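#structure-requests
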Amino acid sequence: MKTQQENDRKLIFDNEGIKAFAIQLKKIREREGFTQSQLAFESGLSLSQIARIETARINPTLSTVFTLARTLNVTLPDLFNFELPPKV
């Protein structure tokens, strides 16, 4: 039986943070000379998943972020090198 607190939990989707990550990922992908198709192929992710991440439609898992960093041959701080907008 669920408690009231468990029932009150909601899925967190920080839209502004996801958008900032999306912009940074696209910038790095282009800087490193990857197309979305190439990144998808080399990372093992689907092209639609790459597109949804870059347009901030989905919240990528940590495992996905690690895969992207390894494929792009960049550090995690590089992927997260952006200002996090304040929560509105």
